[in-house]
Amino acid sequence: MQKQFNVVIEQEGEGYYIASVPALSGCHTQAKSVDELMERIKEAIELCMEVRNEQIEQLDFVVHSKQTF
What we know:
This protein has 69 residues and is of the alpha+beta class. It has one helix spanning 34-51; strands at 3-11, 17-20, 28-31, 59-66.
């Protein structure tokens, strides 16, 4: 069964990108680049789902980006 998650991405003033998954409480990560961030949030989602004892076959992302200045 495939699952889709909304991933909220914010850019911090110091250049870091922060990603969180509103549907999974406590599921968040940060990185210096968006590419690295997407790899990390995918891993974070997998770990959150593992803790909840749910299987994921494939992750599909719907990304929302919020730019802060």
